[in-house]
Structure formats: C-alpha cells, structure tokens
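Bit of a strange request maybe. I'm writing a small parser for structure token strings and I need a real example to test against, not something I typed by hand. Could someone generate the tokens for this chain?
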Amino acid sequence: MPELSRSQVVVYGAVAVALLLVGARAIRAESAPRPSFAAASAEAGGGAGEAKFSLSGEAGDLVVDVAGAVRRPGVYRLPAGSRVEDAIGRAGGPSAAAMLEAVNRAARLADGQQVVVPERGPGGTAPATGGDEEGPISLGTATVEQLDTIEGIGPVTAADIVEFRDEHGGLASVDQLDRVTGIGPATMESLRARLQP
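Reply from user aminoacidic:
Good idea to test on real output. This should exercise your parser:
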C-alpha cells in the first residue's frame, strides 16, 4: 500500500469531517417537526374551499374552522393558547369585505371552534343578524346583539354568555353554557337549536 503524504492526510481528514457535519445536519433535520399539510398548502397558494389537513399530531394543538370573509377559509391546526387573530392570520388574513370589528380577535381559541368573520353589508353596514333562515350563529364569534335574537335570551344573559366565553378562552361546546347564570334547561334547548360551536 502506498504511503500517504501529509497533505493527502489533511485533505482526507477534511473530507471526513465535512461528511460527518452533513450527516449530523441530515439527522437533525429528520428529527425536526415537520410543518402541517395545511401550512404547506397555504404557502403553496391553496385555493379557497380546499380541505386542509394536518399531518402533525402534537398534543395540545387546536383544530379550528375559519370561515367567512377570509382569504383561505378552511380547517387549521394552531398551537394551544392561540387567539382568534392567529386563526384569521392562518387563513390568509381578512378579505377586503371583512367586518373585523364584529369579531373579538383577542379571544382564546378552543379545540373544534368555528371562527366566522362576517362580511360588510351594503354601504359598509353590518349584515342583518336576526331570523332563523340565516342558519346557526357561531358560538365562538357571536355578538351580544346576535345572542339577544335567540328565544329566551335577553341582553343581560347575552352579555353574560359573551363574558363567560371570553373568560374561558372560547367554548368548544354549547353544553358549556349551562354554567352561565340564568340559563336553564329550556334555554339550553333554544341555544342548541340556534348556536354552533
């Protein structure tokens, strides 16, 4: 076997060190958490209406549905402790027609919550909130005025519901409202019929 010169030993040593560094970097990249499919889809310019799924199953994450006047409505996974503002941002931000003052953007999110950003009506006004034909009201974003339209709920109880929701960082279920003072079994039935989580 031919004898290696000193310069050859230095070159081979440098190559070995470089290979070790590349291997360590690859191993570190393998163990790093991967972005969710929803985030990757959003970055790739996924269109509105496309279903978004997350491949990461980290404990403590929240899954929320963001709908209404946002650029990319869909279902998103967010870290625990996230706020409505974070969900709107994940959905691409508000659209030009969004009426953000109707949404409590500082409220904490709950797992399974739907965040609905309403659109401005003609002339920049709020859309009408009354009437069963408009479908259920989102518990996560309902205003006092919207809750007041539900049979058996007055302005005081509606304000209590909004306060309870904000104090508890959102609500995952209509059934949690039975802890609000002034809501009995008959009122709970009205709430179940008109509200969605």
